[in-house]
Amino acid sequence: MALFNLMEKIVDLKLEKYLPEDKGCCPCEQCRSDMKCLALNKLPAKYVNTEKGELFSRVDQLMVRQSSVDVDFAVMQAIEFVKSKPRHDLAKKGG
Ligand SMILES: [Zn+2]
Over 50: is that where the pLDDT of 60 sits? Predict the structure, then answer.
């Protein structure tokens, strides 16, 4: 048994859904983890004590049962923010 932040998984799923739809958004590793980080900081953690096999069915249940409007909003805000200030540019130019 291990602790998982279910919200992390939900944000992952949302990014997978929104990123391909958003043409202006960079899907690189750096930007993606920045978006995930920003979104998670705005959302409440949802810890579950579960085995790995259970995780995905629980995510599905949670997303169907609860309104995910807040999650959508936080993820979209994070995407917009990273779009306007992508940190991969800083790394490439070296300041
Ligand atoms: Zn990027």
Answer: yes
Which pLDDT score is estimated for 95? 47
Residues 6+ apart with CB under 8 A from 64: none
Residue 83 pLDDT grade (very low, low, confident, very high; cuts 50, 70, 90): very high
Amino acid at 69: V
Distance of CA 66 from the midpoint of ligand 1 (Å):
31
- Distance of CA 38 from the midpoint of ligand 1 (Å): 15
**Helix spans in 1-95 (H):** 6-18, 29-42, 52-65, 69-84, 87-93
Report the relative pairing of strands 2-5 and 47-50 from DSSP bridges. antiparallel
Give distance in angstroms: CA of 54 to centre of ligand 1: 32
Smallest CA-to-CA distance from 17 within 59, 53, 51 is with: 59
Q: What is the pTM of this model?
A: 0.78
